[in-house]
Design brief:
Helix content: 55-70%
CATH architecture of the largest domain: 2-Layer Sandwich
Structural class: mainly alpha
Strand content: 5-15%
Number of helices: 19
Radius of gyration: 22 Å
CATH topology of the largest domain: Beta Polymerase, domain 2
Number of domains: 2
Shape: globular
Number of strands: 7
């Protein structure tokens, strides 16, 4: 794959609500168009079902090679069935938490399918069910799920010595999706608007299921990628996050007062601005709203996408640098905390394998 920038633009054009169907049809029907690149990158970005659904909505499925059409149809069908099962699980958990007066709200993918923002529930790929719970009720909610068929997944030693944004994942016995109960959205980042109490105070009731306000969903979607998924570290984009963003943005396209808030409060924030600058390289709807302009960093990103070997080397270097930074921060704990030292020694085989994988990949 010689030029990721071209592949990224093709994926964005398929997902976008602004791309001309005539122009897209001309691009996709060209004899030299490489569908393999779309599949590889679409899979990495967890947007293959979204790509299929958008092509279907644009009435362009006929341009897909026959085998690829069958493949994407099957993947999308499986994801639709999975999401419908997740939605039932969400309602079951909600009923349980509501019965015990737990103050909570679902987050991320599960909240998005509850809000019903997609034309097809199959569009969004979901990993875990994330739930933000009032800190004073967090332990009660955790044990409530355990007594109702969920089992804690074994944790590494870091869970005992360092703060995490959520409790250990809970694996269900008879449901499809693991659950993470959150005390907060971030560990190393602070945002006043996204503090737990603020989100819970503005949550919305959707058929007895509580989800964040649309604004909080949008903010969390952006910052979750930038902070938790290290989008800021790698200065990159996620098509799943970008697609969530442009779908959520449709809620605000005709609200002038929110546009002013967007530009003044969000776009002038450095972390949000970076996100918009990078996603606007490929999505015209974001470029129109933010009036984003290219700069050295976006130009460097495009350079990396056009030079894959350098791109991979640079990302490995960033990963190694981040790893060393984390290790240096934990060194003081190792030196000062006897229990932590003992835990490290007892878990040395796993830690050795992890260290080896980091340096082998570099």
């Amino acid at each position: 794959m010689g030029n990721l920038a071209i592949t990224y633009q093709h994926i964005a054009d398929i997902l976008s609500f602004e791309t001309s169907n005539h122009k897209l049809e001309k691009t996709l029907s060209h004899p030299s168009f490489n569908w393999d690149h779309i599949v590889v990158e679409g899979s990495k970005h967890l947007v293959l079902p979204a790509i299929y659904c958008r092509l279907k909505a644009k009435k362009l499925l006929g341009l897909l090679p026959k085998e690829l059409n069958s493949y994407l149809t099957e993947i999308t069908s499986l994801n639709r069935n999975r999401n419908e099962a997740i939605l039932k699980q969400v309602h079951s958990i909600s009923q349980l938490l509501n019965q015990h007066q737990i103050n909570y709200t679902f987050l991320k993918g599960s909240a998005l399918i509850v809000q019903d923002i997609f034309e097809d529930i199959a569009e969004r790929m979901i990993g875990d069910i994330d739930i933000l719970v009032d800190i004073d009720q967090l332990d009660n909610a955790y044990h409530l799920l355990i007594t109702n068929g969920y089992t804690p997944i074994e944790q590494t030693l870091g869970n005992d010595f360092f703060e995490h944004k959520h409790l250990p994942r809970l694996k269900p016995k008879h449901e499809i999706c693991a659950v993470e109960l959150h005390r907060k959205l971030f560990v190393s980042h602070s945002n006043t608007e996204l503090k737990s109490k603020t989100i819970l105070s503005k949550k919305i009731n959707r058929s007895s299921v509580f989800i964040p306000s649309t604004e909080h969903l949008l903010m969390h979607n952006i910052l979750n990628f930038q902070i938790n998924d290290k989008g800021t570290l790698y200065n990159s984009i996620s098509f799943r996050s970008a697609y969530d963003t442009i779908v959520l943005l449709q809620e605000y396209n005709h609200k002038k007062e929110w546009y002013n808030k967007w530009y003044n409060k969000w776009y002038n924030n450095k972390i949000f601005k970076r996100y918009f600058n990078y996603t606007s390289l490929f999505f015209n709807e974001i470029k129109i709203i933010t009036n984003a302009k290219s700069n050295f960093f976006t130009s460097f990103y495009l350079f990396k996408l056009k030079h894959i070997k350098f791109y991979k080397f640079w990302n490995r270097l960033l990963k190694l640098t981040n790893f060393i930074s984390v290790m240096l921060n934990r060194m003081s704990t190792f030196l000062l905390n006897k229990s932590y030292r003992k835990a490290i020694i007892n878990d040395r085989k796993r830690i050795y394998i992890y260290f080896k994988s980091i340096f082998d990949n570099f």
